[in-house]
UniProtKB/TrEMBL annotation:
Xref: Gene3D superfamilies: YVTN repeat-like/Quinoprotein amine dehydrogenase
Taxonomic classification: unclassified sequences, metagenomes, ecological metagenomes
Entries under PANTHER family matching the protein: EXO-ALPHA-SIALIDASE, XYLOGLUCANASE (EUROFUNG)
Protein name per UniProt: Sortilin N-terminal domain-containing protein
GO biological process: xyloglucan metabolic process
UniProt source species: marine metagenome
InterPro entries noted in UniProt: Sialidase_sf, WD40/YVTN_repeat-like_dom_sf, Xyloglucanase_GH74
Length: 339
């Protein structure tokens, strides 16, 4: 088994987001939950890194599937930032453009459509609380049709509260899934109307008297759709483990075989092998070779087991990067034992 190695000497706050370019996998970005070191970039597959931008606490990150020079990231204090020259210069696009210049709310998740890369979605909390408040608050949904240059608010998810992840369905850029403090929800009309939480188990747990007293939401942090088969969906909840659907989200079952914790963070399918998925948790990283039915622990070499963000190489499911509370680690043949 390959062990995790530190990808570099980069140390910052929590690494909240990592993304690998689909069109040039040597290009990687990593965002941090820190005011003075927001966004890092590597142009050599994670061997070396440099700080390329500073704004505020990063939340979401997205690289254009068609052009590695176009990158967008969200943060909790300022406008959504965009570069079109590979990180050399950045411009705020949502939150200080003419249409939303007075809109000063925490922006959270962001995602491109993989097969229609001009289309991007992002979300922002209506309040300034940054989430964690329950019952749910509304979250505003914004859409761009020009790779993030300009934006329009297209809808409101009334019961989402803080949106953690956005995934755009392959073949239908109007169909988006979000994992949020308000559970797992979807929109079929480009963010205009919303389903409400689709995992009944989470709603039942949220009604538990103790959870009501503690204001615990039915929170789902990660969601992903199996490449080439959008009917298989994995949803990583913050308290109750993994949920799996094989019918496009109509029904759900817990899928925790092999997991040693129920506190999950991000989940990702591998593009190169859709049967492979990884999930980050309070207790390290777990891998599935059967599209999320069962899981195996892969923690050798990790100094910190609290793992937040994850990115999988687009052409090799065995090359993975994860972010912890202060470091980036990789399983990568070229990095093995580099130290």
């Amino acid at each position: 088994e390959l062990k995790w190695e530190r990808a570099s000497d980069v140390m910052a706050g929590e690494f909240t987001a990592i993304e690998i370019s689909r069109s040039n996998p040597n290009i990687i970005y990593a965002g941090t939950d820190s005011n003075d070191m927001t966004m890092y970039q590597s142009k050599d597959g994670g061997n070396t890194w440099k700080l390329v931008h500073v704004t505020g606490h990063n939340a979401g990150l997205a690289i254009s599937p068609a052009d590695p020079n176009i990158v967008l990231y969200t943060n909790l204090e300022a406008a959504v930032q965009r570069t079109m020259d590979g990180g050399e210069t950045w411009k705020g696009v949502v939150g200080n453009d003419p249409e939303t210049q007075n809109y000063n709310k925490p922006f959270t998740a962001i995602a491109f459509s993989t097969d229609m890369p001009d289309i991007v979605y992002t979300s922002a909390l209506r309040s300034d609380t940054r989430g964690g408040i329950w019952p749910a608050e509304p979250s505003d949904i914004f859409k761009s049709i020009d790779s993030g240059k300009t934006w329009k608010q297209v809808g409101i998810c009334e019961t989402c509260s803080s949106i953690q992840t956005i995934v755009v369905k392959e073949g239908d850029s109007n169909f988006i899934w979000v994992s949020a403090d308000g559970g797992l929800q979807f929109s079929k009309d480009g963010g205009n109307s919303w389903s409400g939480n689709v995992i009944p188990y989470l709603d039942e747990k949220a009604k538990d008297p103790q959870n009501i007293r503690e204001h615990k939401p039915p929170k789902v942090i990660g969601v992903d759709l199996q490449p080439g088969n959008s009917k298989t969906i994995l949803a990583a909840s913050s308290e109750y483990g993994m949920f799996r659907s094989t019918d496009g989200g109509l029904t759900w079952k817990q899928s925790n075989s092999g997991l040693t914790t129920s506190k999950l963070h991000r989940v990702k399918f591998a593009i190169s092998n859709p049967n492979v998925a990884y999930v980050t948790t309070h207790n390290g990283v777990f891998k599935s070779d059967d599209s999320g039915k069962s899981w195996t622990e892969h923690n050798q070499g990790l100094k910190l087991k609290f793992v937040s963000s994850i990115a999988i190489h687009p052409t090799d499911e065995n090359i993975v990067y994860v972010g912890t509370l202060n470091e980036i680690y990789t399983i990568h043949p070229e990095h093995k034992n580099r130290g």
